[in-house]
Amino acid sequence: MTDFRTLKDFIVLARVRSFSQASIHCNVTTSGLSRRITALEEWLGVSVFDRTRHQLELTDAGTEFHVAAVEIVELLEKTRNSVIRTQEKNRRRISIVAPHIMSRAFFPAWLPRVSRQSEETRFSIDFANLPECFKHLTNRSVDFVVAFADNNNGISEHLKRTVSLDELECLKIGREWLVPVSAPNLLGEPLNSVSLPKGEISYLHYRQDCSLSWALEKMLKGNPSLSALRKIHDCSLADGLRSMAITGLGVAWLPLEIVRNDLDRKDLVRAGNTESDIALEINIYRRKEKLGENAEILWDNLSSMANDSSFAVAKPVIPFTTLS
């Protein structure tokens, strides 16, 4: 079978009708070009040029083959250019997967900041439950996982059942807090208070497939003062619990970032003091192997900013009113 280079040489020779001139265009000696065309004719089993005339002329077979050769070369060149463009896009693209809550609690503030550092970088962000996120990472279908880690290690203890975190590299890139909130009564006090409970407290909880539930359950088990909580409604998404809390169905521990405006508007109020908060780190994980160029640049930048407090998600001061 003939090769791609010979097809291109044949097309050039058919255009200029001269071995000496075509050899210059093809960057090959005249004898080398002649050998390639002879090999092409042997492969076809027929002559493609009439060499008996003063100027080279395509034979009937050569004319027919020329049409096909042009189509083949154009298709291969187009496909090659497309592959190169795709590879270049993939080289610039950084793929991240994270739990759904990060779409509200982290990426809106973080992504514009890192994007400004490299305008050529393209981010591809997807969302899944946390074990599925790490499955994508170990399967090499993404560059990074962004996830919460709580100070009581409830999340990491649960993850270690299925994920070898020691085989991954990790950087802290932010912080967040789960805060207990409730709808207010007419006096602006929480309908459900975990600081001064009066009987059972209606508690809106995360489903077990949500990583925030692992952090919350670990804290609650170690806090006997919260034993009056009575589980009622549940949801796998923080936004669902937020909606339930606003309607007065119970107390919910929600990321401070997603209830900031609700607290400012008094649609929600704190249902406990800061001792009831759960401190969370926001970590980014990667495999211990070389990633794409831009992914490595991002990691280096994040490493240099790991100790920069201005890069972390700061906790604003929200006063807690003493409950009566």
Structure description:
- This protein is α/β, with parallel strands linked by helices and 324 residues long.
- The chain has two domains: 4-91, Orthogonal Bundle (Arc Repressor Mutant, subunit A), CATH 1.10.10; 145-290 and 303-311, D-Maltodextrin-Binding Protein, domain 2 (3-Layer(aba) Sandwich), CATH 3.40.190.
- Helix content is 44%, strand content 21%.
- The protein has twelve helices and eleven strands.
- Helix 1 (4-16) crosses helix 3 (30-44).
- Residues 310-324 have low confidence and may be disordered.
The figure for the number of domains is 2
Radius of gyration, CA atoms, in whole angstroms = 33 Å
Give the biggest beta sheet.
7 strands, mixed
Distance between the termini: 90 Å
CATH third-tier fold name of the largest domain: D-Maltodextrin-Binding Protein, domain 2
* CATH hierarchy class name of the largest domain: Alpha Beta
- What is the CATH homology-level superfamily of the largest domain? Periplasmic binding protein-like II
What ranges have pLDDT less than 50 throughout 5 or more consecutive residues?
310-324
**Secondary-structure element string:** HHHEEHEHHEHEHEEHEHEHEEH
The general outline is rod-shaped
SS summary, helix count: 12
Rounded mean pLDDT score:
86
Layout of SSEs?
Elements: H1 4-16, H2 19-26, H3 30-44, E1 49-50, E2 57-58, H4 60-92, E3 93-98, H5 102-105, H6 107-117, E4 122-127, H7 130-138, E5 144-150, H8 154-159, E6 168-182, E7 201-206, H9 211-221, E8 229-235, H10 238-246, E9 252-255, H11 256-265, E10 269-270, E11 278-287, H12 293-305
Parallel strand pairs: 3-4, 3-5, 7-8
Antiparallel strand pairs: 1-2, 5-11, 6-9, 6-10, 6-11
Helix pairs in contact: 1-2, 1-3, 1-4, 2-3
